[in-house]
Design a protein that fits this description.
mainly alpha; about 75% helix; globular
């Protein structure tokens, strides 16, 4: 049984040693979390009841709304950038070709390359919530944790599908991909990370419901802040499941095709 975890564990150890070697940067990431939480708390104090009509669905507290939005959107950045950055570094260091000609499967490489970043981001997200709860009175006492956990897993799958697709472009184009920035920007504007989508014009609200991030954030907020049941969250859950079923196999196939094309063209080591 342990042999199935040997390679993922090796990837995690490699990435941890690499990241922790930059000690100041490693520590400053946690300092940045504290500064962000404090900033959003005082911003919520400034807004007061101004945004209340748009926040009633989520309990009326902007601080709680935005902290969950920022915390969950951290996974979007990880999913979109981790694998592509790993490939880019491998191209520049000359380790990508050595890794891809081993007997390690494409799926194992995809999952293992992102594991450390997702684990580390989960620690940071937990810190966001803990600071919010113990220092600034974030109330999640009525949270439906099982529903929140399910939405969390589906969110990781949905976001990772986009990240794998992004990495496929890096594998072929070398200089970077054309979709990562577009997706991240679109999700930030239309997904409701910093503000409820109800403040958007009607046609943009309709467009936002085609994005997985909208349903992930809405479902997570309703599960944690209002304690909604699985039935009440069924629409968000179903959309995330459908998106994952369609995108995950497609993105893995696209990445496999990109690797095969790079091998045939002899461009694995080019950057």
């Amino acid at each position: 049984m342990f042999k199935y975890f040997e390679k993922p564990y090796a990837f995690i150890c490699r990435d941890f040693l690499n990241q922790s070697s930059y000690k100041i940067s490693f520590v400053m990431q946690f300092t940045g979390i504290f500064i962000s939480v404090v900033t959003f708390f005082f911003l919520s104090e400034l807004l007061g009841g101004v945004a209340l009509p748009h926040l009633q669905t989520y309990g009326g507290n902007y601080f709680a709304f935005v902290i969950i939005g920022v915390a969950l959107s951290s996974y979007l950045g990880v999913a979109m950038n981790t694998l592509s950055q790993t490939i880019r570094e491998g191209q520049m260091l000359g380790t990508l070709e050595a890794m891809l000609v081993t007997h390690t499967g494409i799926t194992t490489i995809i999952i293992s390359s992102s594991l450390y970043s997702f684990v580390f981001t989960s620690i940071k997200v937990a810190l966001y919530l803990l600071l919010g709860v113990f220092l600034f009175g974030l109330d999640i006492g009525n949270a439906n944790l099982l529903a929140a956990f399910l939405i969390f897993l589906l969110t990781i799958i949905a976001f990772s599908s986009l990240g794998i697709l992004s990495a496929s472009f890096v594998m072929v184009l070398k200089k970077g991909d054309p979709i990562s920035w577009v997706i991240s920007s679109t999700f930030g504007v239309l997904g409701g990370v910093y503000y409820p989508i109800s403040i958007l014009p009607g046609w943009l609200q309709k467009a936002s419901y085609f994005l997985p991030v909208t349903h992930a954030l809405e479902g997570m907020r309703l599960a944690l802040l209002k304690g909604y049941s699985f039935g009440a969250l069924s629409q968000n859950i179903i959309v995330l499941i459908v998106f994952s079923i369609i995108m995950l196999p497609g993105s893995v196939c696209a990445f496999g095709y990109a690797v095969r094309k790079a091998k045939i063209d002899g461009t694995l080591t080019q950057y």
